């Protein structure tokens, strides 16, 4: 696939820390992802990969800037304050949170999209290491 | 980062992990790559005096093979809104399901009947977001408080509204008939006849369309979904029976080994039938 045109997407969207190798501990998993190649780490292999990664962020930025233009600076500031407060409602260190409050503020309780059907984080089969994660969160590490 | 003390659950939604793998496998299949099921199709819609008629053929192809002879291309979106889908069968089915769910949530939340323009807007946003990678060419028709509506949405999110529309690989054949025969404010029978002939033209002239014609008549009073409205003239005339009689294959030897099982533990759980 010709990936030349995809570089322009890189510079316009919110910067993301690159596409690191998908294996454990940052090492390339040759069996699942094939051999390492510099091109694969810098450019996305699917045209939608970058735009999907940044979609939520870009939508929010657009909405905040429109709101600021219509109602003044106070409107996005208040909203962002609420979002920050909702983002802090989490469970104990190792457990994943459903972010229900944040989701509701964003309007996720009234719509269904592909995020609700595909790749549900509640069904994810990945697990971290509980003790390491708790120590890291509490700053003991 | 893939450190063991920072767990990053992959984001919900589409997962692009296999894209690199597919790119690497690109040249290796030499024509035997599995082909998605497409509904290379003829779908048409017409607005008449009391409502909207949607019609579709019933063939679904996978490459050069007919995958489904009785494919249902007229999808339900709301009690007063239906949608014909052409393009990749899975994409049309899934997107129409999503739109139907969103409209159902909306009508439960607000207590109002959904309008056709809502479905069109949701579809437009969704399809544009995925830049045409979702191959869904849809014709939406419905009757709501603002009148009778017929819209078409393309895979990139382009929207068009006309009193008569057709999409799919047989759209040009059907459009010719519609252009010739359409009159504003037609009666029900006249309109049914028009779409029937239009889809028939698509079936005859296009290899991707075939078999039966389904129609769906939507009016203020209700919906009439006829499947099939007209059966295909070319029935399957199989001359040979392909089922094998029991005993066709001769048994050469037979060996029976009984499994010796012993009862290890027995528990009895009383069911509460109170």
Automatic annotation (TrEMBL), chain A:
Coiled-coil residue spans: none
Protein name, per record: Proteasome maturation protein
Family named by the database record: Belongs to the POMP/UMP1 family.
Keyword Chaperone: yes
Keyword S-adenosyl-L-methionine: no
Protein keywords: Chaperone, Proteasome
Lineage: superkingdom: Eukaryota
GO biological process, one term: proteasome assembly
Gene Ontology annotations for the cellular component aspect, listed alphabetically: cytoplasm; nucleus; proteasome complex
From TrEMBL, chain B:
Reactions it catalyzes: Cleavage of peptide bonds with very broad specificity
Entry keywords, A to Z: Cytoplasm, Hydrolase, Nucleus, Protease, Proteasome, Threonine protease
Compartment(s) where it occurs, according to its Swiss-Prot or TrEMBL record: Cytoplasm; Nucleus
GO biological process: proteolysis involved in protein catabolic process
Domain Proteasome beta subunit C-terminal positions: 238-268
One Pfam family it belongs to: Proteasome
Cell cycle recorded as keyword: no
Keyword Nucleus: yes
Superkingdom of origin: Eukaryota
GO CC field: cytoplasm; nucleus; proteasome core complex
UniProt xrefs under InterPro entries: Proteasome_bsu_C (IPR024689), Proteasome_bsu_CS (IPR016050), Proteasome_sua/b (IPR001353), Proteasome_suB-type (IPR023333)
GO molecular function: threonine-type endopeptidase activity
Oligomeric form and interacting partners: Component of the proteasome complex.
Role of this protein: Component of the proteasome, a multicatalytic proteinase complex which is characterized by its ability to cleave peptides with Arg, Phe, Tyr, Leu, and Glu adjacent to the leaving group at neutral or slightly basic pH. The proteasome has an ATP-dependent proteolytic activity.
Recorded family membership: Belongs to the peptidase T1B family.
Protein name: Proteasome subunit beta
Protein's organism: Solea senegalensis (Senegalese sole)
Phylogenetic lineage: Eukaryota, Metazoa, Chordata, Craniata, Vertebrata
């Amino acid at each position: 696939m010709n990936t030349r045109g995809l570089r322009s997407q890189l510079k316009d969207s919110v910067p993301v820390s690159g596409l690191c190798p998908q294996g454990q501990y940052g090492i390339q998993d040759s069996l699942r992802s094939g051999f390492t190649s510099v091109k694969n780490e810098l450019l996305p292999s699917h045209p939608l990969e970058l735009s999907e990664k940044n979609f939520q962020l870009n939508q929010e930025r657009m909405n905040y800037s429109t709101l600021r233009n219509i109602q003044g600076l106070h409107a996005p500031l208040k909203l962002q304050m609420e979002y920050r407060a909702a983002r802090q409602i989490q469970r104990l260190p190792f457990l994943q949170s459903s972010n229900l409050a944040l989701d509701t503020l964003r309007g996720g309780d009234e719509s269904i999209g592909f995020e609700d059907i595909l790749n549900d984080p509640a069904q994810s089969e990945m697990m971290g290491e509980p003790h390491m994660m708790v120590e890291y969160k509490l700053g003991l590490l | 980062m893939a450190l063991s003390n920072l767990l990053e659950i992959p984001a919900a939604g589409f997962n692009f992990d296999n894209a690199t793998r597919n790119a690497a496998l690109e040249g290796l299949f030499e024509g035997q790559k599995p082909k998605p099921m497409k509904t290379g199709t003829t779908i048409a819609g017409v607005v008449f005096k009391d409502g909207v008629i949607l019609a579709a053929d019933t063939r679904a192809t996978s490459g050069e093979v007919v995958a489904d002879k009785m494919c249902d291309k007229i999808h339900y979106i709301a009690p007063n809104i239906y949608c014909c889908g052409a393009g990749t069968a899975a994409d049309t089915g899934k997107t129409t399901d999503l739109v139907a769910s969103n409209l159902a949530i909306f009508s439960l939340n607000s207590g109002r009947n959904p309008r056709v323009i809502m479905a069109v807007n949701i579809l437009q946003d969704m399809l544009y977001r995925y830049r045409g990678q979702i191959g869904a060419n849809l014709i939406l028709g419905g009757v709501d408080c603002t009148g009778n509506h017929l819209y078409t949405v393309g895979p990139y999110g382009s929207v068009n509204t006309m009193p008569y529309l057709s999409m799919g690989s047989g759209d040009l054949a059907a459009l010719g008939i519609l252009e010739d025969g359409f009159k504003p404010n037609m009666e029900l029978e006249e309109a049914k006849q028009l779409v029937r002939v239009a889809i028939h033209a698509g079936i005859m002239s296009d290899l991707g369309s075939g078999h039966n014609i389904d129609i769906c008549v939507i009016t203020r009073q209700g919906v009439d979904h006829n499947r099939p409205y007209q059966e295909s003239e070319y029935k399957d005339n199989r001359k040979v029976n392909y089922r094998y009689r029991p005993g066709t294959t001769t048994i050469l030897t037979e060996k029976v080994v009984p499994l010796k099982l012993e009862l290890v533990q027995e528990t009895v759980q009383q069911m509460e039938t109170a």
